[in-house]
Predict the structure of OmpA family protein.
Amino acid sequence: MKKLVLSLLLIAINFSAKAQSYIGYFHDNYAGVQSVLFNPASIADSRFKTDINIFSISGSVQNDLYGVKLFDVYKKGYDFEKESVMTPKNSNNGLANFDIMGPSFMFNIAPKHTLAVFTRARSVSNARNVNGYLVDQVKDGLDQANNFNFNAGSPNGASNSWGELGLSYATVLYQNNQHFLKGGLTAKYLQGGANGYVQGKNVNVAFVENKLDPKAGTLVSNGEVTIGGSQDWEANEDYDFDINSSGFGFDFGLVYEWRPEYEKYDLRNAAKIDNNFRDLNKYKLRFGLSVTDIGSINYKNSKIDTYNVTGVVTQQMIDDADNIYDFLNEHYTKISSSKGVKTNLPTAIHADVDWNMYRKFYLNLNGDISMVSDTKLNGTSIADRVSLTPRYESRWFSFYVPMTWMEYSGMQVGSGIRLGAFFVGSGSVLSNLVSKESKGADFHVGMKIPVYEKKFKDTDGDGVIDKEDACRKVAGPAQNNGCPWPDTDGDKVLDKDDACPDVKGPVENKGCPWKDTDGDTLLDNVDACPAIAGPVENKGCPWPDTDGDGILDKDDACPTVAGLAENKGCPVLDADKDGVPDNVDDCPLIAGPADNKGCPKVTKATLEKLKVEAKSIFFVTGKATLSDAKKGETSGRLDAIKEILKNYPNAKFAINGHTDNVGNPKANQKLSEARAKVVMEALISKGVNPENLTSQGFGASKPVQSNKTAAGRAENRRTEIVYLGNL
């Protein structure tokens, strides 16, 4: 009870935690499902068919108060309090984190889409702004302390453990030449475990020793202390699991890859053996950015008490207390008490730059920034960190050496290895081997079942992969399961295509020799009538005279109607009675003068009527869309124009669009062109021959009135129909 009460009263929390997992490992391209914990986008377009985590664990501790020769700590008889080197400050901090990943897996659901499902147990604790001088003074208890008077300030500590069930989705968002972007999102269900926290506000502590009786020394304090937890830890020796303590969390991230040699990996050129190049690294530089652990856990039964700790207590009072809450309630004034608290996740931003220096050698720069305030009550967070990691990686082996600056514990150097299904490493093991004042240590270890994407094998190089090739050592087409086709008669027509497999013949006759069945000197392969003799000029067929007018169909312009030789076998008609025979009449059904090839001429009156009708076609302001408001009138105008134009089947008309000079000239030009085209298409849809129409836009280049007045501009916004001449 003694040291626990002292930790509360003095806010001298001499151990706490907030650190990262899998340092040096997670940015490996073969990290698999572990990488999703730091950036969910990383699993898209990965080199795995699937990756199954059996079990993995990562732990880390750092602080800026105690320094030790780490590997001496485990020796028998080691006295931590005496042999550690303390570096007290007015504001000391300590860090630690434990992260256990249970059965988890990732797999591709489509070429550009990937899912991951993971289970995870985590423990994060934080203490900030602890007066290290005070910790040093009372580390052996008040009865061993000398007189002191310290401003403990406003220290803040929290600890939280919870479980996660996560679902991650990642996909390729953009792919264009050398640019490749992927994104990912993780949704997590959170099950609360144990939660406790303590926060001081303007706490001062003074101790006056009694040399005759150390137990009679007095501790004088003032300020406020808030303490809370998911249960009463003093009253309950066993933890009561609260299934209602739950919440939700989210991670999201982006990864951009620069692929300067993208042409080598163009899927349009990929053969089946290439397996879409999914086994290869395709980037020179990779940039990643993610935000993780957005969310919170609601501890509905958490007890929150705030005390005014102004008062005087003795060592004997501390020793006599049964539990911390009874001690506080007996000797100090409770200011407030409530129930239920939301505990945030350690939200953080992660950035990552990976450079493929040469073949399988990489250099990675990555870092973390905590997004949680140091003054937040019951706030858990990670430490700010920057790591530079050279590594060598291949499908079954990776070796990496992370060099890290970690908040509070400073620089540390580690090493790790991935070998087949196992990986183990530490971000601090090398520096801890030589340092006599290590302030941080971490490790990670795991076992998984990786199933990699790989290039298929094609021994004979025929494009049929070995597992589908019936003749693996002899090239052959895929249609014959990778075996060559036979050619028995040697005519270069394979037996599968040869109608005469035992007799040579040309490819055109399916491997058989040609015949001349009708004896007209034309072989059947070029004889259009192979059973009836005919002249060569008619491809071996006799010339017909269908209408029996003595003019062979080849010379008869009207092969089904008897006619005169001078009229090329056609009768002479004049259906419209305009004196122009139909055989030279461009408009045989509409009367017209001979000097216009039997078609009516376009008159000024006709053009004026077309002008009036076209002027009354209305559009939506600023658009090439016929106005709904004037829909009936516009449709009527178009019908009237159609009725006029059908009388001139050999005439060519232009639909011209014009605008006023308001707005951008280029936009006006495009608008005039589009409006002219809309009118033309509307007339064509009503039955006007497309060959009689063209469209053109002139923008504001041909005004008929001044653009300085609204009336003038209205006149200039027009559609015109212009006669161009005959077809």
Residues 202 and 324 are 21 Å apart (CA to CA). The chain has ten helices and 26 strands. The chain has a mean pLDDT of 86. The chain has two domains: 2-400, 604-726.
